[in-house]
Amino acid sequence: MAATVAVALLTRGHGNARRLPPRPKSARGAACERGRSKDPWWVHDGAMGDKPQSRGDAERLLSTEAVIRRALGRDVGRLLSFDPIAREGRDPEGVHQLRVAARRLRAELKICSMVLKTKPAKGLRHELHWLGTTLGAERDLDVLSVSVAIATTAPGADDLRVAIAERLDLDRAKSHHAVIVALGSDRYRALIRRLCAAVTDPPLRRQASAPAAAVLDPALARSALRLDTLVSNLGDRPADEQLHRLRLATKQLRYGAELATAYAGEPAANTAADLAVLQTELGELHDAGRVLGVLAEVRRSRPRWQVDGPEALALQGAIDAEERAKARSRAAWATLYGEARRSLIELGWLGDPG
Predict the structure, then answer these.
(1) Per residue in 208-226, pLDDT tens?
(2) Can you give the CATH number for the domain in which 136 is found?
């Protein structure tokens, strides 16, 4: 099963499949086109008042309510569409996209919390955290499977690859069982009902009628400043755990930038694309660390693979390759953050020190 998962991830190029080249800069334009609204101005006429003079005006005046409704409709729809694929368990993309939808919804509810009624919004975020955590165990094993498959492709590594795959298969079977139990539970069904109700009748405060730029930009600017402060405090040799926290903070701000494309257009889309590239590089580093942990465990459990022989050579070769991958990511992330930081300055979420 682990081999099937690895092939599916590698051939389809989804998620954190490692060793794939980073998204080219031209992806920023594509991200912009995906993020910009295609709705005519009159869809939100009630929230915006008089007809704007241009599409740029329409985006800047888009109400916070309109942004929230659009985000909830999109991501609840994504969650529902990938639910049956996740239940089948054959395509790892099902669990991945279900988890992405849950995480994105949770982030969006947090970003917009100042215009949402506290109790229902907080309750949804709590349940979405439960769902994302449940799905995360299986998803992490899927990513680990493809990472290990790539790391053990050298000649003589067949026994090593099979030994690791057998262990990961057992772990994945347990985690998928937990996913099936969760998706069949009353708790999950109640969450789906509440999310669908929120799409048609979101728990809004009166302030939600204000322009999204006026409401959301200050909160997103504070998030950008927290990320910038986090980077400034890392020091010259940050620990892996510190960079992992940086990756999580980067992802949260990326979700915010993607949400802002509805009213900020291309600058927000460019920022989201740059943050996504940084997040991917930090993910590569995190994945390399996890693979090294698995390889170290194999070495401890197989004494005969600690001496000369094809298995020992293959194991050491895989360890060396992961160490090099980890070093590359450590050398690259700061430059990528610099690019993302410039986008944040252009967007107005960070001040220009120059």
Answers:
(1) 999 999 999 999 999 999 9
(2) 1.40.20.10
